[in-house]
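INFO  loader      accepted 1 record
INFO  loader      residues=407
INFO  predictor   begin
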Amino acid sequence: MRKFFVLTLFLIIITAAGSTDAELQISGYYKNFSTGLASPLPDEPIIGAVNNRLRLNLAYTPIDTLSLDLAYDFAPRIQDLSLFSESPIVGAAGSLHYRVVDFDTTIYPDEGDPEGSFGLFHNLDRAAVAYGADFGDITIGRQAIAWGSARVVNPTDVIAPYAYNQLDTEDRIGVDAIRVQIPIGVLGEFDTGYVFGENLAFEKSAFFLRSQLNAVETDFSIALLGFREHLMTGFDIARGIGGAGFWLEAAYVYANAFNSENGEAEDYLRASVGLDYSFGGIAYGFIEYHFSGAGVGEPGDYLDNLSQSAYADGGVYLMGRHYFVPGLSYQITPLIALSGVVLSNISDPSVFPSLQIEYNFAQDIYLSAGGFIGIGKRPETEDAETQFKSEFGGYPTLFFLSFRLYF
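INFO  predictor   done
INFO  writer      dumping tokens
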């Protein structure tokens, strides 16, 4: 299987290389995130990490109707040993790995080598061919697939979602898929495809049917998505109300719809509704409410509930049910921007505010600093077992410095 994909990609490049009208674009970036983590548990030391990421993007268009996209990430990391094995955030969303085959992401250390605080990682994140047919666009290969109009939590985005506290969200994780996008009218689209899981196994794959249209100055979309033997129906509405923007995004998941023998699992509803407003181009604010039917109401049940399929397969990471999220960004000067978001669990209550300041001190060069602070009742440990008293009171405090260079 690996040889087949490599040979196919090689043949496409060689075949297209003979075109005299070909266009080649090479771009990329280097990012550095230096972080510190303070555990919510008492007497735990502060741990740190220095994560580097070099990304190279290649876009090749031999003819108007055919294009090739490649992207490769190289990531050296120096960090506490514990961060290589698990996320410090309980229930944190991670990659669901919708890829047929992939090379080992770890270059160093090799399996069997002594464990240390240094690691080398890499990722072939894009490798897709797109063909523009008369009826629409066909994309085959490793690509980004994401949906949703909500600002913080997207219920319909279950293929490769990012958590609220993810620092680097510029590029979605690439997944292996065949995708067909057919335009309908001026602003409408029919979007369908199949997302391949490991070794083409159906129980690790996904498929989707999605339609989008614009009517009465409103964007509507409905979706049907099967993923990892679950079935999701969803819709998304976005429009302007006066000078503000409005969105309503919701999804209902029928757990184990394609495999009733896989044990009992609860169906669940997720929804996000919100408003945003731009204040003269200098400031931008939004409010969002999110309901998660996959969560529970009592902090004492948080950890046990993480065994549900919504967390393992559906990209859910929030442990409660009701959330209120205000956010504000302000352009202090043309080169300095300040932004803040507060993710709050209404039922606990607990909050997880974030604050970031960014300075664009040269063309394509950015320096930023910020942090995420978990505020709420701290977890308690008895007989080596941790008991949550609030959701975000159990989150570590995270501070970071970031340097980004684009080329």
